[in-house]
Write a structure and sequence with these properties.
Chain B: Belongs to the ABC transporter superfamily. The complex is a heterodimer of chains A (about 270) and B (about 525). Helix content of chain A is about 65%, strand content about 0%. Chain A is mainly alpha-helical and about 270 residues long. Chain A has two domains: about 130 residues, no CATH class; about 70 residues, no CATH class. Classes of the chains: A mainly alpha (about 270), B alpha/beta (about 525).
């Protein structure tokens, strides 16, 4: 790999530091472990965790994986406020699964807790990937490391830019209904009608916006053939070790579950 | 791939019909452009200027973005125009829909990646292009954090980095505030002087760009080329005709009939209003920033008030507060005088129906406020809600359609109208409660934005009549001509507060100065 100025120093490539694209900017602040890990490694780790946990009902093993995931939080570099914001719905999801299993399941409270823990253990890696990966880095990793096709990866990346735009358009549509004298008040039928009208208007706008963006991408030669890559999605030894560690953890979790006698295949 | 120099363009009897349309967008267009020429492409709105640029950029055709049928020949460098990435660069109006990547450098690199330029050659060209457009930040800068003018500069950098032989510019300043437009115009002037590329520019505000070009080609609305030659010659020979078609020309600013405003009592008052940016979605979202930090403003009857300030300064926010559509985080917006007799509650607490009868709002994107499937229903909507009798509604709507020149389009979906038609309809919907029921206050967000001179003039004359009737007009605007010709009070918003500039030594309630006719 050459000392390319495009290498994102944050990935910790050996030549990164002197070649920050921003020019003479100071060295970037040290990034948290999970943020430094190549997104492709994180995606793979999340996928093997799901594959390993999905076919098995095992409160003990799931608890080990969940605990390991939670133990990674301090190394995720995600701000505490954001963690709380994302963590709330996450805990709510786990709690509701637990309550439903407890009330309607036939396994008693222990299995209900087990079901909640299992689901959260499967979901947490995905949440961590989303929260700790820069979208650009993620797209680069998917294309360069996991050989995903360019078009969907870059398309999704471009579409991400439009989300705040759509949110602003939705707010304007809401104000405009009021300006026209439309208000649902306490009438649910009117609320549904107003919502449908706004959704249609937003759909029209977003299709138009998307079309224009696609045209701009085409005009810059996107999709005409082989692409080169301005940024290197660097794969370090630590990324390999991260995957090895995940595999070891999953084996250990299953072993513990079998030893504790709580391990059980789903639908068996 | 040939680099450097400009491309030759040749059209012979060229035409284009969009898929699913009966009529030709363009027809019988013939001209030749020499390498390195700088051409301004003019024509009335709907003459197909953008379509022509898209075709030159190779975006039209069966396996491309724009489907349709072609007629005649279009050659770029002697070959049929097709997608030849890197040779032709296109810059469109809205930078928002042209930026692809989250970071500035990555975006400038995007086109080079598509050309499969090796990595070690990408970054020197990216930095060169960023320097060339005077991009003030590093390559790591988030594209979301840029102003409109900076975004458009970055778009141009991304195009220049590819080293195009033909540079197509489709109203590159149309969506920018005056500061942003100035930034981009400076850049265009420098680029035009430096590059050897052939340049084809579409721009409504001709006066701003006429010095950059050495040739003007005017497309006729029905098809063919109306005029072709040096700018001075074309404007001397065809100026009157172009002006009649709504083209903005140097020394031919529109001259509307503007009766003076009578002035009147204050109707709405905003006191010490504070607002913050809305909550953003996503884990990476930043905190909420203050927009207005204590804005106080009054809106008087019979007066045209303009809210000015840079993009993002809070003009639209203040307009929405004064319109009673949004509520401030702190401070209040109260009806005053005659309007307080309707209800003394803060405006944002008014029932939507009551608010719409007394305070009308016209949005910048007219589509935002269309709520029915046909033009006729759109105009029926308000009088129906105001309790007007059926036959009265029909005759009133027919009259409105006639006045707006929309009779032929009465049954089409409002979204399918042209820009000028949408603008006329959106203003009409706010006024359509009937002759006796027009709202006391009419607020408009960038009402003249992107309009040709014909719609501009109609709009100003309509607003002037409303003002003469004693209604309050409030406009968030950048339009300096609108400020000069129609505005009584300018409220400039700066750093979240409202200042009255020295140039506007007029007070809200005072009678308007005489319209400054020359």
């Amino acid at each position: 790999m050459s000392a390319s100025p495009g290498t994102r120093p944050a990935h910790g490539t050996p030549h990164g530091a002197e070649a920050r694209p921003g020019g003479p900017a100071a060295a970037p602040p040290a990034r948290a472990f999970l943020a430094r890990t190549n997104p492709a490694a994180k995606v793979l780790a999340a996928v093997i965790t799901t594959i390993a946990l999905l076919p098995v009902l095992d409160p003990v093993g799931s608890a080990v994986v969940l605990a390991a995931g939670l133990a990674l939080l301090p190394f995720s570099g995600v701000r505490a406020r954001v963690l709380l914001l994302v963590g709330g719905p996450f805990l709510l999801m786990g709690a509701s699964i637990g309550v439903v299993n407890w009330l309607f399941g036939d396994g008693g409270p222990l299995l209900a807790v087990g079901a909640a823990v299992r689901l959260m253990a499967i979901a947490l890696p995905g949440v961590l990937v989303a929260m700790t990966s820069d979208p650009t880095d993620l797209a680069d990793a998917l294309v360069q490391r996991l050989r995903l096709p360019e078009r969907p990866a870059m398309g999704v990346l471009a579409a991400l830019r439009l989300i705040p735009l759509l949110a602003a358009q939705w707010r304007m549509l809401t104000l405009a209904r009021r300006a026209r004298g439309m208000e649902a008040g306490r009438n649910p039928a009117a609320a549904v009608a107003i919502f449908a009208g706004k959704a249609f208007a937003l759909l029209v706008r977003s299709i138009r916006t998307g079309t224009m963006l696609a045209m701009a991408m085409d005009a810059r030669g996107f999709g005409t053939g082989e692409r080169s890559h301005a940024r290197v999605s660097a794969w370090r030894a630590a990324d390999t070790w991260f995957l090895v560690g995940t595999a070891v953890l999953l084996c250990a979790a299953h072993a513990l579950g079998i030893a504790a006698g709580t391990w059980q295949m789903l639908f068996s | 791939m040939p680099k450097g120099g400009g491309a030759a363009v040749a059209l012979t009897d060229w035409g284009w019909r969009h898929a699913g349309r009966d009529s030709w967008a363009l027809r019988g267009v013939t001209f030749a452009i020499e390498p390195g020429e700088r051409v301004l492409l003019l024509g009335a709105s709907g003459a197909g200027k953008s379509t022509l640029l898209h075709a030159l950029a190779g975006l039209t055709g069966d396996d491309n973005s724009i489907a349709g049928e072609q007629q005649g020949g279009m050659l770029v460098d002697g070959e049929p125009a097709a997608r030849r990435p890197g040779r032709v660069g296109l810059v469109s109006q809205d930078p928002e829909t042209q930026l692809v990547m989250a970071r500035a450098g990555d975006d400038a690199a995007f086109g080079l990646e598509n050309l499969a330029v090796p990595r070690e050659r990408i970054w020197p060209r990216v930095h060169e292009a960023l320097a060339e457009v005077g991009f003030p930040y590093g390559a790591d800068r988030s594209t979301a954090a840029l102003s409109g003018g900076e975004k458009q500069r970055l778009v141009i950098a991304g195009v220049l980095a590819m080293g195009p032989r033909l540079l197509l510019l489709d109203e590159p300043t149309a969506n920018l505030d005056p500061e942003g437009a100035l930034l981009v115009r400076d850049l265009l002037a420098r680029t035009a002087a430096r590059t050897e590329a052939t340049l084809v520019l579409v721009e409504h505000r001709v006066a701003d760009v006429v010095d950059l070009v050495d040739r003007v080609i005017v497309l006729a609305p029905g098809g063919g080329v109306l005029a072709d030659g040096a700018p001075g010659h074309v404007f001397a020979a065809h100026g009157a005709r172009l002006a009649a078609q709504g083209v903005w020309l140097p020394d031919r600013a529109p001259d509307p009939e503007v009766p003076p405003g009578p002035g009147g009592p204050v109707l709405i008052e905003a006191r010490e209003c504070r607002t913050r940016t809305p909550v953003e979605l996503g884990a990476a979202a930043g905190p909420r920033h203050p927009v207005l930090t204590g804005a106080t403003a009054a809106v008087a009857a019979g007066t045209a008030t303009a809210l000015t300030g840079r993009n993002g300064s809070g003009k639209s926010t203040l307009l929405m507060l004064l319109a009673g559509l949004a509520r401030p985080d702190s401070g209040t917006v109260l009806p005053c005088g005659p309007l307080a007799e309707v209800s003394g509650r803060p405006l944002w607490r008014w029932q939507a129906r009551r608010l719409a009868r007394h305070v009308g709002t016209v949005f910048q994107h007219a589509e935002d406020q269309f709520v029915t499937p046909t033009v006729r229903d759109e105009l029926r909507y308000a009088p129906l809600r105001a309790g007007m009798a059926g036959p009265d509604i029909e005759s009133w709507v027919d009259e409105l359609l006639e006045r707006l020149r929309l009779t032929a389009l009465a049954d089409v979906h409002p979204f399918t109208l042209s820009g000028g038609e949408k603008r006329r309809l959106s203003v009409a919907t706010a006024l359509s409660s009937g002759p006796a029921h027009a709202p006391d206050v009419l607020l408009l967000d960038e009402p003249t934005f992107g309009q040709d001179t014909t719609t501009w003039t109609e709009l100003v004359e309509l607003l002037a009549v409303l003002r003469e009737q004693g209604r309050a007009i409030v406009m968030a605007t950048h339009d300096s001509l609108l400020l000069r010709r129609f505005t009584d009070t300018e409220l400039r918003i700066d750093q979240g507060r409202v200042a009255v500039p020295d140039t506007a030594a007029r007070t809200g309630a005072a009678p308007a100065r005489k319209a400054d006719r020359r």
